Amino acid sequence: MKKINLFWFRRDLRLTDNAGLFHALKEGLPVLPIFIFDAEILDDLVDKRDARVEFIRNVLQEIHQELLALGSTLDVRFGKPAEVWEKLTTEYDIAQVFTNHDYEPYAIQRDEAIAQHLNSQGIAFKTFKDHVIFEKLEIVKKDGTPYTVFTPYSRKWKEKLLSDLGNVAEHHCSNSTYLQAFPSEKYLENFLKTTAKKIPTLEDIGFKPSAIAFPPKVVAQKTIKDYGENRDFPARNGTSKLGVHFRFGTISIREKARKASLLNDTYLNELIWRDFYAMILANFPHVVGNAFRAKYEAVPWREAEEDFECWCQGKTGYPLVDAGMRELLTTGYMHNRVRMVVASFLTKHLLIDWRRGEAWFAQKLLDFDLASNNGGWQWAAGCGTDAAPYFRIFNPSSQLKKFDKDLSYVKKWVPEYGTTAYPPPMVEHKFARERCLQVYKMALNS
DNA sequence: TTTTGAGTTGTTCGA
DNA sequence: GTCGAACAACTCAAA
User: Distance, angstroms, CA A387 to C1' C11?
Assistant: First the structure.
């Protein structure tokens, strides 16, 4: 049996500028890329029309086509990773396994177990940074501990990006070595030449097609350039909609950060937010399931099943909230500004546990990312890292007036708005606001 | 150690 | 309609 190296695709589904893949290919031994549909995750998905699973399947098919053209193949498995790796180590004579870092608690545990198994077989398990620009402890305060406030973190982040450029007059973020591509595409001939494997269909892994449309990888330069002016208006096409591609690694974060650093600082900041929350998750894994600030666990959330259902279905009687929730249900996407409005409404107006909103987003969002979703929800609820005083409560009516004045976004998703078919507000704003202030105050003072 | 300044995205009230 | 202060008083980061 021929000795080979394996590259394990996870959240980095691309053949270009892929750190782990680059390191695997340039070793010289033939590389076989693999992907595992994780039964531990997929078996828990109740809705078998999951757009994310479909997205991954489509991308794997594309990658497979590219590999076929090179005389290679993609080996796609279904099962529990530990069991799949038991098999792989008996089927192939593996020298080393390459993959990219994954910072979610489940993934960290999984990778530790796999690394142990591989090492016991004399196989090296090599992992690389690829998903973020700076990871866990690369940006820290002077005392070496991680930041928990965004602005000083972002300043340090940008400083570090420039730190390798010295005093060159024309120096610019985009030239930083931290944003340089890993040219994995230069070594494509090093993929293992072998007969084609079959890529499982959606049905093979127990799923069905969704009705969700996937946003393109390409964004108009103008969109990024004008991002700062347009991004808050949900009716405008002002955001990149690249979330899903960052989530699955179908585009390179370094490539986009390079562009952002040239085009628009507000957009670059959004990419830094992504690094920030990935860093928070890596350093404070208790945020999964728990408030970052423990004392906020004292807030007595309302059970309110019916209220929660109204929120999920977009029937709150607040048009901007309902438009957002319906956009989510229909498209698997929601505009960023509206995400804040609906999150504030659920946690502050309805006093429903942020974890339930987080879980609903996790189920519905095509671009769902554990770190960013959790960070956003904790921010909205006021229990997260950054200073968002709990008495800052979004007024869904003034948000509508500010950001969708002519109602074009609302009319698109809530066509019955303004007719008798549209329900009255499920809770009066002034009442809800005062109730929230009182409940939080009580909880935090006890 | 203490102090100082500042903190993604807000709202309301009264002049 | 616009503007600035008050909201209520916290926490972090750095000097």
Answer: 7
